[in-house]
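User: Quick sanity check before I run a bigger batch. Here is a single chain. Can you write out its predicted 3D structure?
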Amino acid sequence: MILHTDRSGQGQPVVLVHGLFGSLENLGMVARQLKTEFDVISVDQRNHGRSPHCAEMSYPLMADDLAQTLDQLGLTRVALLGHSMGGKTVMEFALRYPERVSHLILADISPVVSQARHIDILKALQAVDFDTCRDRKQVDDALTNGIADAGTRAFLLRSLHKQDNRLSWRFALANIVSNYQQVLAAPVARGPYHGPTLFIKGGDSDYLLPEHQPVIQQLFPAAKAKVIAGTGHWLHAEKPAIFARICRDFLLT
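Assistant: Done. Predicted structure follows.
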């Protein structure tokens, strides 16, 4: 599968891969700060953004999507930055194709089976009736029944789009629901990837924990870690300048 991409800047190629329910726009602030020194390629993963929808969804498949997309772009070796689900995709890619990865950055995610944190979100999304919800405000009101956090709703609403005067989600909700256990899964390939690897943790997040250290060291023996204090899982959006600076400094080593 060839993914939808956006490319800007010049220099060392760096690929940015978003998380669940997102799109390439989610890492847009990071892309804008890195493109002054790097060739930045942002991608929409399958079933997200403007990339194709597909009934199957797993990290081996998403890693192969990335490989095929890079092949089409003529890129044989790149740096990879992935957030959350995107982090697991780029882990899978690096473990499968280590010779194609110069640097690996994982934003607030670990190579373990994740907790099922999205059940209420999935139920709220499925409950939205686009026959009666005709504008963003009505969709937001409908989501409020299951999602109290305004920031989470605002993030999801970024994936609203209108076609033929009807609203819908850009992400393929039914496919995500049917593959949710695959989204939670750990990377399948065992590698290891010996190249430079950086895990960046949100200081207030519990996605990346000390007990994950043994599997991280097994799969990514050169791994280092940074913590951005005062941030949660959306660390790149909460403190984008600090996040981008950490990425830049690592990519230039």
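The CA atoms of residues 9 and 36 lie 6 Å apart.

User: Great, the batch can go ahead then.
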